[in-house]
Amino acid sequence: MPEATTTPLIESICSAAHQLTGKAENYNSLMDLIGDARFVLIGEASHGTHEFYQQRAEITKQLIQNKGFSAIAIEADFPDADRVNRYVRGISSDPTPEAALQEFQQFPTWMWRNVDVVTFVAWLRQYNDALPPNRTKVGFHGLDLYSLYRSIAAVLDYLDRVDPEAAKHARDRYACLEHFEEDAQSYGYAATSGLSESCQAEAVDQLKELQQRAAEYTQQDGQVAEDEFFYAQQNARLVKDAEAYYRSMFQERVSSWNLRDRHMADSLDELVNYLDRQGQQTKIVVWAHNSHLGDARATDLGKSGQWNLGQLVREKYGQEAILIGFSTYTGTVTATSNWNEPPQMKRVRPGLPDSYEALFHATGLPQFWLNLQADNLAITGLRERRLERAIGVIYRPETERSSHYFYASLPQQFDAIIHIDDTRAVEPLDRTVEPIIDEVPETFPSAL
Q1: CA-to-CA distance for 177 and 203, rounded, in angstroms?
Q2: CA distance linking residue 342 with residue 261, whole number of Å
Q3: Longest C-alpha distance within the chain, in Å?
C-alpha cells in the first residue's frame, strides 16, 4: 500500500500509542489491560534482541510485585530451567546466576545465557530471598522438549534414589534409545526410515508406570518429595513427547511444529495444576517467541494447519490469557546463518514496505505500545492483513522476504504490541560472538 494512503492510519496510531520513556509507570495502562488475567504470554520478534529481553523482564517484575504472579515458564527445556528454578528459590548450591545458567549448553546458548537473563535471575533471587517465610517463592520453569537424553538421565537419577528396582526397569525401557550416541535426530531418522524400531511404547510405558506410583513416591517427605516427583514426571513426559517429535521431524514440518507447541501447552497445564495444589490459584508469565505466543489462527501459518501455544492457551483459558508481542524496524541482532554455527552480530534490515514494522516506523515514535483490544481507528486499520517479521535463532537477510515474513492480522494475533524502532543485539555470556555482519546486497532495497 502506498505510504500516502496510510497517513490517516499513521496519525491514528500516534494518537492511540502509549509512548515508552524508560519509566516504570509507562506500563501502568498495560497493567490495567492485563487486569486479573492468570496468564500473560510475552513474546519476542527475535531470539537475540536486548530490548525484548529487557522490557519483558521489566513487565514481569511488575506482574510479580503488583499482581501476584508466582511462576515464569520459558521456551526452554525443563531440566535446564529447573537448575535456575532451584537457584532463584534458594535451594541450590550455585553461588551466582551465571552458575545457575550453566545447564544451557545446547545451541543456541545465547538465547538464555545472556546478560539480560543474568540480570533478571539475580533480581528474582533477591526478590524471593526477601519474601516472608509463608509466602510462595516465584519459580522459573521450562516448557520445551529438546532435552530427550538429559531428561532420561533425570528420570533415572530420581528412580535410583527412590526405587532402585524401578530404575532397572526404566533403564531397560530407555535402552531402546541408547544406540544413537545421544543424537536424537539420528534416532528420529532411523525410526522413520525403518532402520530402527520405534521406542514410542517404551517411553509411554515408563511415564505410565511413574504416574501409577505417584502416591507411593510422594508420601515419603511431604513437599520435598512432591517437588522431586513432579520434576521426574515432567521429564518422563518430555521423553515421551520428544521421542514422537524427533520422529515427526522426518515427516512434515507442520506435524513437528504442532507436536512441539502441544507439548508446551500440556507442560504449562501440568505446571499450573501442580502449583495450584499448593493452596492458591497460580498466575504464570510465559516467555517465548512471537511465533509461539501470537495466536496462529491470525496468520498464514494457521491457515496451513499450524497451531501454537498462544492459540491453545486462548482456546482453553479465554480472557484469563493476555498475549503480548514485540516488533522492531531495524538495528542489530545476535543470530546465525545456519544451525549450530557460532553466533554473529547481524544488522537487521529496515522493515519491508507494507509491513507492520514499516508502518510503526512511519509514526516517528521511537518506542511505544498499543492496546490491540481497543475500539479506535488505529486498531480498525491494523486489522488489515500485513507482513510481519519473525527472526529466530537463524537470520538470513539475503532471503528475508521468504525466510522471515508472513501475513498476519495483528489485533487478532495479540492483545497488545510493543514496538521498539531501533534495537540492539543481546550480549551473550559466552564471548564468542563474531563481529557485526553487513549482508545488505548492492540491489537492496529492491531485493532483485
Answers
A1: 9
A2: 26
A3: 74
CB proximity list for 377: less than 8 A, separation 6 or greater: 8, 9, 12, 16
8 Å CB contact between 231 and 85: no
Per residue in 262-307, pLDDT (tens digit) is: 999 999 999 999 999 877 889 999 999 999 999 999 999 888 899 9
Q: Where are the alpha helices (DSSP H) in 319-365?
A: 356-361
Could you give the number of structural domains in the chain?
Answer: 3
Here the CATH number for the domain that contains residue 178 is 1.20.1440
Return the bridge partners of 434, or none. 344
Total-model pTM: 0.93
160-183 pLDDT tens trace: 999 999 999 999 999 999 888 788
Query: Does residue 186 sit in the same domain as residue 248?
Result: yes
Bin 311: left if φ > 0, else alpha if -120 < ψ < 50, else beta: alpha
Please say whether the beta carbons of 370 and 16 come within 8 A.
yes
Final residue of a structural domain among 214, 249, 279: 279
User: How is residue 265 written as a grid cell?
Assistant: 501447552
Let me know whether 104 and 218 are in one domain: no
Same-domain status, 33 and 123 = no
Answer with the one of 279, 305, 320 that is the final residue of a domain.
279
- Cα 132 to Cα 283: distance, rounded to the nearest angstrom: 19
Please state, in angstroms and rounded to a whole number, the distance separating the CA atoms of residues 329 and 312.
29
Does one domain contain both 267 and 404? Answer: no
Name residue, grid cell 490495567: 32
Q: Could you give the CA distance from residue 169 to residue 242 in angstroms, rounded to a whole number?
A: 20
| Phi, psi of 390, deg, nearest 5 | -135, 120
Which residue range forms the structural domain that includes residue 84? 70-140
Q: Alpha-carbon distance 366 to 368, whole Å? A: 7
User: pLDDT tens across 327-347, in order?
Assistant: 999 999 999 999 999 999 999
Pairing outcome for strands 405-408 and 386-389: antiparallel
